[in-house]
Hints:
Elements (H helix, E strand, L loop, with lengths): L16 E5 L4 H12 L3 E6 L2 H21 L11 E5 L5 H14 L5 E3 L25 H8 L8 E3 L15 H12 L6 H13 L10 E3 L2 E2 L4 H4 L1 H14 L6 H8 L3
Parallel strand pairs: 1-2, 1-4, 2-3, 5-6
Antiparallel strand pairs: 6-7
The structure holds NADP nicotinamide-adenine-dinucleotide phosphate (NAP).
NADP nicotinamide-adenine-dinucleotide phosphate (NAP) binds next to helix 1.
Pfam families: adh_short
Keywords: Oxidoreductase
GO molecular function, one term: oxidoreductase activity
Amino acid sequence: xxxxxxxxxxPLSPEKVVIVTGGNTGIxxxxxxxxxxxxxxxxxxxxxxxxxxxxxxxMEADFEQEKQKGTSGLTSGELSVEFMELDxxxxxxxxxxIEEFKASGKPLHVLICNAGLGMHPxxxxxxxxxxxxxxxxxxxLNQRINQSNVTVNSLHPGVVHSEFTRSFEDDCxxxxxxxxxxxxxxxxxxxxxxxxxxxxxVNSKHSGVRDVYFDKCAPASPxxxxxxxENQEQLWKFSLDCLKDYITEEDLNNLGAKT
Length: 259
Ligand SMILES: NC(=O)c1ccc[n+]([C@@H]2O[C@H](COP(=O)([O-])OP(=O)(O)OC[C@H]3O[C@@H](n4cnc5c(N)ncnc54)[C@H](OP(=O)(O)O)[C@@H]3O)[C@@H](O)[C@H]2O)c1
């Protein structure tokens, strides 16, 4: 019973295409690396080319080390990771990314929306939105696509010592809290923080599962704020309004409708 959270270390098809946003560091790096090491094709969607290419080089070195250790479940092929540029704080960049990905003709099996910030000082994007305002809209999205074979889930990675604290380096309370968590062994490594993301993405026992909030690879109860339907709908409508200059009226209407 119980035990540490884990994901199945089993080779994945090279035909499987997985996008990991923010795959160049922290939880996203480990998520992208392990999924690629098991054989899928991984696209790391990152805002800085240099950091992304450096991450790919590190992943290749880590892969060699894991092979030498005899780690199970690794692909016998090459590591298949590519970089595509995506700055989620710019709708223009996001649209360009989507168009480039569609033009590549690749299928998309899993999208891991990992990129994010924590406790960032109030900042506005070029589109006039608050910077940390992000797509946390699992329930609203599922209600609109529940007749399709696309499933959406969300998760909590744990308290992870990654580069997450850089946004609030000037905030003594938060920095001290994170540093204490690290000293007392409360926080976990980026690899451990990535385990739930990897499991939800690759474990066949989760296929067809939707609308679930995962914690330590198991379904968990989200906060009441997250399950408040009125708030979900308000956020969804606001988000669609932000996108009105970027998507067609027909798509907007389709996204607005619940199935
Ligand atoms: N660490 C925790 O304790 C914790 C707890 C709960 C939830 N989370 C969530 O877990 C996710 C990963 O966090 P982490 O701990 O791995 O943090 P991290 O080490 O700071 O990594 C964040 C990643 O997001 C990318 N990113 C930030 N803004 C972006 C933008 N505008 N466009 C594209 N990419 C952007 C960063 O890119 P650059 O490297 O170029 O900046 C980086 O790759 C985040 O969504 C975070 O909210 C973390």
